[in-house]
């Protein structure tokens, strides 16, 4: 089947929605497609050849025509993550839990693959299960990796068993094979994956808790909840600390504070890297930070709105954007399974350690988001700011100030999104040997979900020549959107770079069999 033409001009419109499910030829069938409002999954029909899973939907010239099984299982994991939280109507997926799931799935994949490499060591068995040279074939690698990913996905998404089994079947393997021949690829995949899963049950995330991932720190907010859109300054106890919101009748709860003490992959401890404390409140520095966000809000451009909404990631869920970076690199550079097993392992270990590191800072500082501190500080004053969807810039009582985008349920400092992005960009820069990225996205006129039909007035093209620039745009998006302070962003990106570096070095030890 022929592939439809794809433009290489970043400013040329392409028929793409922000989240494309992978499609494949008959030889590469097996990705998932979201069905009936997110409540079920079905195997995607093999309707066309693969194109790089990117925000533009384009494939770099000369890239391989088919994705590796690593890419296909990566997309399947993202589809399952999205399906679960969209099925219950949540705007945001749990970034920490998502990062951990992706890290564990790709740890399982990597450890299975490493058994068929000449020098690589697995994280649980080292080189003890290394197969002889004659068995190190692509077919065996694909089979071992697929059985490992299948077992991991069943661990995290038992409600999607039919679809997960269907995916394994579409790749030519038997999901009912639970007792494979010893040292066969299926046995290797299941054995290594189970060892990773067993180890992770005790990593401090409380995956097996009731409910899963329940807080184990005993955290209690210092402020009573505030109803979004009806801020009451009279009940504020400690304005500089985080305040849970009531959004649509649902009370926010601090998302997984225990990740602040979870076992990391490469960090020596969760708080190995940190950032400077937020400014005191009240203070001259804090007043300047508030005035900065008021000024941004009053003068939001269409491009800033597009940046804020694009990186909100409610269609791919953090750290989903970084998975797209990895898939873009895989297709751009024509990766084989050996390269992808390592790339996605390291990338997702960096994302998981970024979650741990940034959550350690959040728990330490417990700092207020602009959505509560600005209304408290500016109450009774007339301010000029964005007035809500379609209203543009208006004059209002400061108590009514609001962020441009929805605000997630955890403290501000440090920005997790900035830390995720910095870690991903650093790992990918080191892994590929270059900072060159090359992806882009056309934000079509009127397609905003914040201001539908109105924003942007004309198409806006977002481009990322380098990984570093992509990370910086992802970070500043949170400031444009009003959910973070500038002192959350740049330090978060820098901390992410430091995390990405130590993860890369640790991963290279495994890749080189040390």
Task: Characterize the structure shown.
The protein is mainly alpha-helical and 514 residues long. It has 13 helices and 9 strands. The strands form 4 sheets. A 3-stranded mixed β-sheet has the order 3-4-5, with no helix packed on it. Strands 1-2 form a two-stranded antiparallel ribbon.
What is the 3D shape?
elongated
Strand-pairing-aware structural class: mainly alpha
Spatial extent as radius of gyration = 23 Å
Total beta-strand segments? 9
Seen as an oligomer or otherwise, the chain set is single chain
- Helix proportion: 40-55%
Order of helices and strands: EEHHHHHEEEHHHHHEEHEEHH
Distance between the termini: 45 Å
């Amino acid at each position: 089947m022929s592939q439809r033409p794809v433009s290489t001009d970043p400013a040329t419109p392409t028929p793409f929605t922000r989240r494309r499910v992978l499609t494949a030829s008959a030889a590469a069938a097996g990705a998932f497609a979201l069905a009936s409002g997110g409540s079920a999954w079905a195997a995607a029909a093999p309707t066309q050849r693969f194109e790089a899973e990117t925000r533009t939907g384009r494939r770099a010239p000369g890239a391989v025509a088919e994705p590796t099984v690593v890419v296909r299982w990566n997309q399947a994991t993202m589809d399952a993550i999205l399906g679960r939280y969209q099925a219950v109507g949540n705007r945001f997926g749990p970034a920490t839990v998502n990062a951990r799931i992706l890290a564990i799935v790709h740890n399982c994949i990597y450890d299975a693959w490493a058994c068929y490499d000449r020098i690589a060591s697995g994280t649980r068995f080292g080189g003890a299960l290394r197969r002889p040279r004659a068995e190190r074939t692509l077919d065996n690698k694909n089979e071992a990796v697929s059985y490992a990913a299948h077992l991991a996905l069943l661990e995290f998404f038992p409600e999607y068993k039919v679809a997960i089994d269907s995916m394994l079947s579409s790749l030519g393997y038997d999901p009912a094979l639970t007792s494979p021949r010893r040292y066969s690829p299926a046995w290797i995949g299941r054995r290594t994956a189970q060892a990773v899963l067993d180890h992770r049950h005790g990593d401090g995330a409380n995956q097996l808790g009731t409910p899963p991932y329940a807080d184990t720190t005993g955290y209690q907010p210092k402020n009573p909840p505030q109803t979004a859109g009806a801020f009451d300054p009279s009940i504020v106890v400690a304005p500089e600390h985080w305040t849970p919101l009531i959004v649509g009748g649902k009370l926010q709860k601090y998302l997984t504070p225990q990740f602040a003490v979870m076992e990391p992959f490469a960090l020596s401890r969760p708080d190995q890297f940190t950032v400077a404390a937020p400014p005191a409140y009240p203070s001259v520095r804090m007043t300047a930070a508030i005035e900065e966000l008021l000024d941004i809000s009053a003068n939001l451009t269409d491009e800033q709105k597009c940046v804020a909404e694009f990186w909100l990631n409610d269609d791919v869920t953090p750290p989903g954007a970084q998975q797209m970076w990895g898939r873009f690199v895989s297709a751009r550079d024509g990766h084989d399974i050996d390269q992808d097993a390592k790339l996605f392992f390291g990338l997702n270990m960096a994302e998981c350690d970024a979650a741990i590191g940034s959550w350690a800072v959040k728990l330490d500082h417990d700092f207020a988001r602009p959505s509560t501190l600005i209304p408290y500080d500016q109450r009774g004053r007339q301010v000029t700011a964005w007035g809500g969807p379609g209203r543009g810039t208006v004059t209002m009582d400061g108590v009514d100030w609001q962020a441009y985008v929805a605000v997630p349920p955890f403290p501000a400092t440090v920005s997790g999104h900035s830390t995720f992005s910095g870690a991903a960009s650093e790992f990918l820069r080191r892994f590929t040997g270059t900072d060159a990225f090359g992806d882009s996205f056309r934000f079509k006129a009127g397609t905003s979900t914040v201001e539908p039909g109105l924003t942007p007035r004309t198409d806006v093209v977002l481009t990322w020549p380098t990984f570093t620039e992509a990370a910086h745009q992802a970070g500043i998006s949170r400031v444009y959107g009003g959910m973070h302070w500038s002192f959350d962003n740049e330090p978060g990106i820098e901390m992410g770079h430091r995390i990405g570096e130590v993860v890369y070095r640790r991963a290279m030890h495994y890749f080189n069999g040390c």
